[in-house]
Design a protein that fits this description.
single chain; alpha/beta; 5-stranded parallel sheet
């Protein structure tokens, strides 16, 4: 009888321990979900100081899909001119540099074939297709497709918000997030908000512990000079403490890198971290 009581007590203790473990796991799950909701709320709160009240990431991604569809339809149906897709690009030296480990800015630039009448760049499908693939993965990625006179401050703000929205848990590094909020909340001085937004973007990049990708299509259409745009992106490359990959796609008819390269500040940036690849479109081979 004593043996039966011991076995019964053991069974009761096991059942109690299992029930307690289940309750602890349930409470832990609720706590994680509470933290996750609070993270998302705080990230959404960053929209106001970033001046992105009406900005929706899901809407941006849908617009990106439509833009890629337009580009592919435009260039794939042109039988007179050379075509390039993401697979072909990744087989080029530029593509291999992009895929290789290490922080870098890759500037891909070139001219459309002379008979082309479109204002789009034949290299844009590569950047947008690459961005789409990364957006479908778990990798930290922010993308911007510039339009005529796109505001540079707006571009920086969108890149910041996309990285935070993609991984709201970043804000749990409390002091770093407070620093970011302080930077984006400062009133504009002198050169506007560019220096603060650049510093905030760098802080957000450095909160990551894995590769971060920034892809910007057509920065020559931005409201600041393309040379300055590239210089500011290079400053991120120089100061990033996590692996950072930046791709810029430029149409040379609008901004000629080779004619204006001396306008870019490349001090302390070696060729490994600033890769330039010229890719001009040619007539299709028959």
């Amino acid at each position: 009888m004593e043996q039966a009581m011991r076995e019964n007590n053991f069974s009761i203790r096991q059942a109690c321990e299992a029930s307690l473990a289940e309750k602890i796991e349930h409470l832990a799950k609720e706590n994680r979900e509470l933290h996750d909701r609070e993270d998302v709320r705080l990230v959404m709160d960053a929209k106001k100081p970033l001046q992105l009240d009406d900005y929706q990431v899901e809407e941006m991604r849908e617009q990106l899909k439509q833009y890629l569809y337009l580009l592919k339809k435009l260039f794939d149906h042109d039988r007179r001119s050379e075509k390039i897709d993401l697979r072909k690009f990744l087989e080029t030296s530029a593509g291999r540099h992009w895929e290789s480990p290490g922080t870098m800015l890759l500037l891909v630039y070139g001219r459309n074939e002379k008979s082309s009448s479109t204002h789009h760049c034949w290299l844009s499908p590569v950047a947008i297709d690459l961005a789409q693939g990364l957006l479908e993965s778990n990798q930290p990625i922010a993308v911007e497709a510039c339009r005529d006179s796109s505001g540079f401050e707006l571009t920086l703000a969108r890149l910041i918000f996309q990285l935070l929205e993609r991984n709201p848990g970043l804000i749990r590094q409390a002091q770093s997030f407070r620093d970011v909020m302080s930077l984006i909340s400062r009133p504009p001085e002198g050169d506007g908000r560019i220096s603060e937004l650049r510093a905030a973007l760098l802080r957000v990049i450095n909160l990551h512990d894995s590769r971060v990708c920034l892809i910007v299509d057509r920065p020559e259409l931005c409201s600041i000079s393309c040379a300055r745009f590239i210089t500011i992106m290079l400053s991120l490359v120089k100061e990033a403490t996590t692996e950072l990959k930046i791709m810029l796609v430029v149409r040379s008819e609008i901004w000629d890198f080779e004619a204006r390269a001396d306008e870019i500040d490349t001090r302390e940036i070696d060729q490994q971290r600033f890769r330039r690849e010229r890719m001009d479109q040619t007539k299709a081979r028959r």
